[in-house]
Write a structure and sequence with these properties.
Blueprint: H1 8-34, H2 38-47, E1 54-60, E2 69-71, H3 84-95, E3 102-108, E4 111-112, E5 115-116, E6 119-123, H4 132-144, E7 149-150, E8 154-157, E9 192-200, E10 205-211, E11 218-219, E12 222-226, H5 233-237, E13 239-240, E14 246-249, E15 253-254, E16 260-265, H6 272-283, E17 287-288, E18 292-294, E19 305-308, H7 312-321, H8 325-340, H9 345-360, H10 383-394, H11 399-405, E20 425-433, E21 436-444, E22 450-458, H12 466-478
Parallel strand pairs: 5-7, 6-8, 7-17, 8-18, 11-14, 12-15
Antiparallel strand pairs: 1-2, 1-22, 3-6, 3-19, 4-5, 9-10, 9-16, 10-12, 13-14, 20-21, 21-22
Helix pairs in contact: 2-12, 3-7, 3-8, 4-6, 7-11, 8-9
Length: about 475
């Protein structure tokens, strides 16, 4: 038997044929990975957002196949509130869905004839949901101890978190917006006041109620009614919020508005907890001879009782469905407190880095962590990194809790008005900053397949790219 020895020319022809065959096979995969759907391209063009300003990825939730679409998936981008996905899933994994925060209360002195002959101490430990209703329950339990009057002080211990006081307006100049509230070991009612306006045509005024009542703060009980449409009614009120001792108005309220509520962050956040607790204690019929002040719980005291928060699985629904920044930051700091015994940003960042390496791995790199909420110019992540985490979450026993926390398309949260048109469903976290916008989560296609979908834009027109994100989600759902 003889064998023909190939010449250089014949070898080159064989290689050319093999390369050609490889291109025929690989070209569709390359195109599928790099080309954006026509509807997405068109929406980006209308938004005047260039393709190189977005990152997009669509992949099987179980990670069994190569991504169906991958565009700039290795580019590190600012994810805005999409970063809350990382914080909330890490918390589920590290703390468990049943984890609760406790706020212990201490009594320093005997109780005689309804009078506490000493101080009452309240120690904050990071509860993200110590809203006014739950604060009422805490003070009601104090009264259940037989205390109607406090001879000493109410002392608030905020030492569990090591966070410096910052200007709420520093991020975007909107210091009175509740979304800019800063974290606090004793975070009461998001440091905000909710004003409710109720028109009374008989008196031609709108009655104004305030929740909570803040001790030492005078408030205006009514404002004049005005005619005309209910357009920019907040501006028409001429609100004056800058004085910590007074909330007032110089304008009027359009009668056509009907009943409206307006939440605002209190002008002096450092004193908010003391004013809210003092005001509510007096409103409940309690008395105090001393003051409400900050301080530390004496080491020898043991709690009279502890108020427990809702479980973590419930808390993350508020964080993700309504994109609550300060609750996400409370959770982020709690991870540092629980894992490193320090409620600081440095400890929280170290906790997240260690968790990411242990659970997600280092193959796709590691995100840049700042405060865990996405309300940051520094946080960064790639679509590939985020997709890998979401695929890990999909295969985890914690998957139901994470998905239940996400806004459902056309149903609730930040997706309430964004229903899918062509069938299927989606559970997605949204995010918006001045120059960053995105969505990420899970899409349940009409075919029954489950996808991880990520789309983030970093551009001056990023907010205008939302129709492109919607088009990508529709494309994934329709398969």
């Amino acid at each position: 038997m003889s064998f023909a020895v190939p010449t250089a020319t014949s070898l080159s022809r064989v290689l050319a044929r093999l390369l050609g065959l490889a291109w025929v096979v690989l070209a569709p995969l390359h195109a599928a990975a790099q080309a954006l759907p026509h509807e997405v391209e068109a929406a980006l063009a209308r938004a005047k957002v260039p393709r190189d300003a977005v990152t997009m990825l669509v992949a099987d939730a179980d990670g069994a196949r190569a991504p169906r679409l991958s565009w700039r998936s290795q580019a590190q981008v600012n994810p805005a509130s999409v970063m809350k996905l990382v914080t909330t899933y890490a918390a589920l994994d590290l703390l468990g869905p049943a984890f609760t925060w406790t706020t212990p209360v201490y009594v320093d002195g005997p109780v005689r004839g309804g009078v506490l002959e000493g101080n009452l101490y309240i120690r904050g430990q990071g509860d993200p949901k110590l809203v006014i209703e739950r604060l009422w329950l805490l003070l009601r339990r104090v009264q259940a101890l037989g205390i109607r009057s406090i001879q000493g002080d109410i002392v608030l211990d905020r030492s569990a978190f090591e966070v410096a006081d910052t200007d709420p307006a520093a991020f975007d100049g909107e210091g009175l917006r509740p979304y800019n509230a800063t974290p606090d070991a004793l975070l009461v009612n998001f440091k905000s006041v909710v004003m409710t306006f109720l028109p009374d045509r008989a008196t031609q005024t709108a009655q104004v109620s305030y929740e909570p009542a803040l001790s030492g703060v005078s408030t205006q009980a009514a404002v004049p009614l005005s005619a005309g449409e209910c357009n920019d009614w907040r501006t028409a009120l001429g609100a004056e919020f800058g004085d910590p001792a007074r909330i007032g108005f110089t304008g009027s309220y359009p009668a056509a508005c009907g009943e409206k509520a307006w939440p605002v962050a209190y002008a002096q956040p450092r004193t908010y907890a003391a004013r809210a607790i003092g005001g509510l204690w007096l409103e409940m019929g309690g008395r105090i001879q001393g003051v409400v002040r900050e301080g530390r719980v004496p080491a020898e005291l043991r709690p009279a009782f502890e108020l427990a928060s809702p479980p973590l699985a419930e808390v993350i629904r508020d964080i993700n469905k309504y994109s609550n920044n300060v609750m996400a930051q409370q959770l982020f700091l709690t991870l540092g407190l629980q894992q490193k015994r320090r409620g600081s940003l440095e400890a929280a960042r170290a906790t997240l880095r260690q968790w990411w390496n242990d659970r997600i791995g280092t193959g796709e790199g590691q995100p840049v962590f700042d405060n865990g909420s996405g309300l940051s110019r520094d946080e960064r992540i790639t679509a590939a990194e985020l997709a890998k985490m979401l695929q890990v979450a999909w295969r985890s026993p914690l998957m139901p809790e994470l998905i239940a926390s996400l806004p459902a398309s056309g149903v609730d949260g930040t997706l309430r008005k964004r229903a899918l048109r062509g069938g299927g469903a989606a559970h997605l976290k949204t995010g918006t900053l001045r120059d960053s916008a995105g969505v990420a989560g899970f899409v349940h296609a009409a075919s029954g397949r489950r996808y991880v979908v990520i789309a983030i834009a970093n551009h001056a027109n990023a907010v205008a790219a939302r129709p492109a994100f919607d088009a990508l989600v529709e494309w994934a759902a329709q398969e």
